[in-house]
Structure to design on (204 residues):
């Protein structure tokens, strides 16, 4: 494409490096920014640079944080006896948006995948064991909930964590796997349906 300005071309090239954004969309965004007040563009670029340079990882759970502890670990109202183990921050956000969980998290930062050369030592596993074995004053972890994807990697990671934490005697559970809400039974694949029968729930 022949751009009327090298500066626009530079901007388009940078914007189109973002995932899911092609050159055409990047050009549309660049021209949109050009029409907006200069101040708005400056706030956008400041927000991006600040996010990139000032965010850090929570020293306790490895979630993204602005300070030493993330908002969840710093919140004294959270139940400190339960830790939900997830792969990354997106999982924390997904579970938080359900409003059903009041405990703390532990972000592994990946999943065990021999094919991709990712082993237990590449993940935040030792710090999870420390949280259970050597609880800080305010913590006394009683339950670990594994919220990992139902894939081979997820199952391998769950198996490893169970083995690693077994000696601590902490109660361990995994999120239920079953038929989606609003879904028809006949359209569920047999593995999902089979799992949902195995992990059936009794009526109170
Ligand atoms: Zn945290």
């Amino acid at each position: 494409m022949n751009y009327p300005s090298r500066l626009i071309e530079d901007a388009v090239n940078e914007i189109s490096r973002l995932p899911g954004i092609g050159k055409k969309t990047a050009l549309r965004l660049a021209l949109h920014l050009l029409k907006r007040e200069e101040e708005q563009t400056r706030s956008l670029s400041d927000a991006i640079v600040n996010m990139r340079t000032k965010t850090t990882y929570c020293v306790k759970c490895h979630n993204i944080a602005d300070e030493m502890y993330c908002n969840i670990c710093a919140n004294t109202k959270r139940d400190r006896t339960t830790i939900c183990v997830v792969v990354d921050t997106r999982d924390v956000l997904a579970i938080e948006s359900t409003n059903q969980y009041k405990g703390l998290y532990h972000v592994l930062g990946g999943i065990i995948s021999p094919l991709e050369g990712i082993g237990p030592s590449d993940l935040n596993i030792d710090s999870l064991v420390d949280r259970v074995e050597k609880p800080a004053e305010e913590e006394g972890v009683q339950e670990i909930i594994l919220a990992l994807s139902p894939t081979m990697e997820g199952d391998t990671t769950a198996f490893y964590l169970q083995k690693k934490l077994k000696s601590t005697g902490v109660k361990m559970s995994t999120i239920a796997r079953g038929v989606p809400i609003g879904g028809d039974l006949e359209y569920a694949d047999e593995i999902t349906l089979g799992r949902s029968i195995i992990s059936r729930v009794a009526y109170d």
Helices lie at 6-15, 23-35, 38-54, 71-74, 89-96, 126-133, 152-165, 190-198. The mean pLDDT is 92. The CA atoms of residues 196 and 202 lie 12 Å apart.
